[in-house]
């Protein structure tokens, strides 16, 4: 199966190399801001000209395609950035590419041609608020034969913190091709991500016909329909004491703001503490990422079909009491990983509708309760007398849903949720009205 995927490695640069990495990312930011200023000036000029009644074809042009931006940059760079030769030309291209995409998204959003939240006009990238990042698409992008170094245009050969074996094997076998490389500073460390075209040969799931329902939660990270409970590691909660201490220490240092709100130069101590805080957050993110990848990989390796709920994560995050616990779990990320990993292995991911009453339905007889308080941890059915852990019951209902989808495939395909992309191989969805679900469950109950 041919896929585009990224391989990311932490870098171990020398101080000079780290400076060069930062310089390239700064160059990308500079080009972005320069281009944005040009486009804004041109658009303002057009607006003014329109008020004079100038005909459309005589208005000032505002070229904001990548091609147009690059051409104007190359003409102007000698004057606006006499130091431009210090960095690879790819760095400036990378910044202008980001700008061209941002402008395209903004204009598509304004014309109503783009799904999702409205996209605003791009803003200038402030030096201390921007993630340092830069992408290389041409030039020498290579993994060295010792599997411990990578070579990037202009930056030369940089040591990696871990072996590049997995990607190197694909390249040696001819089943992989590097399309681009992106450098990025995250939590104070440098990373390189190679975007590659990979011909994957994943093994099929161990039990291709098996179905597992996964009930995601906060108390337990996940409860499977098999009864297995995956504990919530609560990485963020575990780190809270340390984060709190660092935040308090940071507040005592001479920071970028004066007490009356003005700006000042932060002290060296402030920068040290800030870096420690950033590292602490990055560590939590890394721990969470590792746990989620292990869980989702294990599920798709074992089961042919995985069923999850379509949770309204952004809505739940709006609840101030729940937000921290829910964000700590990373529910949306679990689903994203399951979607592509099932596709890789030829498995199937079924996403239950948002209103599917997985918790309120009895997994034994199909009766649906009108109400089920969050505090009720065991499900006890009034109709058939089933007593079961609440989350296991929900997971079993999800697993049963996979059979429903298989039976009524044509119907569910027609009624597929609008937000689900069929191109994602293993992904299929059940979209039902809430009332209809209850009825259907009810009918099934009488038939059984
Ligand atoms: Zn029952």
**Uncertain ranges:** 408-448
Question: Helices and strands: which structural class?
Answer: alpha+beta
Name the overall outline: globular
Strand content: 15-25%
Return the average pLDDT rounded to an integer: 86
What binds here, in terms of ligands, is:
zinc ion
Please tally the helical runs, counting DSSP H or I stretches of 4 or more residues: 12
**Proportion in helices:** 40-55%
- Biggest sheet overview: 6 strands, mixed
Termini separation comes to 41 Å
Order of helices and strands: EHHHEEEEHEEEEEHHEHHHEEEHHEH
Count the E strands: 15
Keywords:
448 residues, alpha+beta, 6-stranded mixed sheet, globular, disordered C terminus, binds zinc ion
Describe this structure in words.
The protein is of the alpha+beta class and 448 residues long. It is 45% helix and 19% strand. The protein has twelve helices and 15 strands. It has a six-stranded mixed beta sheet with strand order 10-9-8-11-12-15. A four-stranded antiparallel beta sheet has the order 1-7-6-2. It starts with a strand and ends with a helix. The structure holds zinc ion (ZN). Zinc ion binds at residues 362, 364-365, 367, 381, 383-384, 386. The site of zinc ion has 8 residues, from loops.
